[in-house]
Amino acid sequence: MSKRVGVNEYDVHHLITEAYHAGGKFQWAREGAVNSVQAGATWINFGIEPQGFQKHGILRRYIADNGCGMGADELPNFLSSFGGGGREIGIGQNYGQGFKASCYEWNPYGIIVASWTREDPEGWMIWIHRRQDGDHVYWELKDFDFYDENGEFVDSFGDCIRPDITIPGIDIDASLLKTDEIADAGQGTVFLFLGSEDHPDTVDGDYLRDECRNDRRGIVRYLNSRFLDLPEGVDLTVSTAEAKKDAQDTDRRDSKDRFIVHVRTDGTEDRRSVHSRRVSGIRSRITGDATKALQSGTMEAPRDTTIQWYLTAESDDRKGVGSYQLVHPSIVVKYDNEAYDVKNAAHDFRQFGIPDEIRDRVWLVIEPPRMSKNSLSWGVTPQASRGMLISNDGGPLPWEEWWDYFLDNTPEPIEKAKIASQRTEASGDAESRRKRMERLESQFGNRWRGSSLTQSKSGKHRGNPTATSGGSTNSDTTRAPKTTTGVHPDGGRASGSTVRLSADAAGSKLGRHRRATNGIPEVTWDDEFTADNEKLYAARFDPKEIRDGSNGTIHFNKAFPVFQEEIRHWTEKFPRATQSEVIDLIH
Q1: Cβ-based burial of 123 (10 A; exposed 0-12, middle 13-18, buried ≥19)
Q2: In what order do the strands lie in the sheet containing 43-49?
Q3: Among 143, 319, 330, 488, which residue's beta carbon has the most beta carbons within 10 A?
Q4: For residue range 347-376, what is the model confidence (pLDDT) as tens digits?
Q5: Nearest Cα to 191, choosing from 79, 23, 96?
Q6: β partners of residue 43
Q7: pTM for the full model?
């Protein structure tokens, strides 16, 4: 019989470690939520186990759901086999590796799993932990051994037992892990994270990554920004434990929160209020306000990619947004209803030609095609850790193609919003701009060259021949400039001519962008630069921000210290002059 490919058990730990480092913060939360959804759960809770806190002051995180549970045969296999979650292993599949890789490293003391099925309502329980034998590291099921008060071994119940005992080592009643929701459904599973001996508190997640060090709502915020929508009928909540200094909080009759108390050895109390917050996903953040006038549409972009855009009527008011939701309007890449590459910096929006003035009104959801094992067509799939998307050509996501397409085919409502926002800028009326442009062009016209779409067999942008100033369609052409080699820039002879096109996604001709003369940048003054990486800049140039035919826009930062000092100097020098006129002259 031919030898089959396998992995030595000594080497599994290295695979787990590498997969863990390939992931990112809160990856375990994503894996736990997805596993619960795939188990058919309608109720999922990232809860806090109360017994450990009440008895020992330890706050442990658990994930509980009412999905189909696991029996005595399935339960040990689920966590003790790497990449064997009982589901299909294939391109884009969530096949059981991710949960183990994202949880094991920060839970060397172990993970306790209790599960109940409708066929076996008494349930089963295991404890998987890390063990080191010399240079070799293992993950194995722990025997539930019992010792008497003198430390003498009494009995062992084995590694898969009924969850009806007080668990030795952590001193909690396993029967209380079965929540009311699991009892009502007659099925469900609980994963209890034990951390390490040095870090037994797991309420804040992965301590190796400092996930919730300064942000106790990090888990719920991550889940709200990871999922676009939750499946219909799924109720997903995350609990947080917050210290209460005011004893009057315990008397609030209208509160849905519950309290857990640990009495210290000196008799003082450590009281925590347990809050529960619901995860609803990104799209609820976009469309959640019924009073919000929203426009939206879908575009067919290059690489068989769709771009769904949303435009709100006014700048998004973040005052009413929960701190556990995705706060800023964002650009996300969608795969299986999950958000990858979440971007919300000003620079990211400018690449799509969306200026800062309307950035807080625009959301973009980009959905590329899925990679298929039966097709060589371009597509994407999540990397094994589910932390990023990879494509079958080995290259990065084609952001430049998406930028250019959106810029050339900006939806009309967004284009109108851009124009309206630009009209509010103090950059002078059309006539003064025309005169200023004429003066600049007479001096610098040959230096600045605006972009025009010209017909080209090798072009990537579609368009139709434009109308000339004489009114005829542009079979009227403009003479192409000669090159030193006598060859037309498009590859033909210099005796040819250039046909200008008007950009149109459904156009009959192909073209490419070419620089032409008279492309002077527009200039505008911003009160300040809000992006953290730009606050100390004097100016920035946005080539994709077109204002009345300009070749991009130059933004000056009014808050820049040199400009501030110059304004102060000249306004003090001419105190009797109208200050706004002096500042306009300085600008």
Answers
A1: buried
A2: 136-141, 124-133, 111-116, 188-193, 60-65, 43-49, 235-243, 269-279, 258-263
A3: 330
A4: 899 899 898 889 889 999 999 999 987 788
A5: 79
A6: 235
A7: 0.72
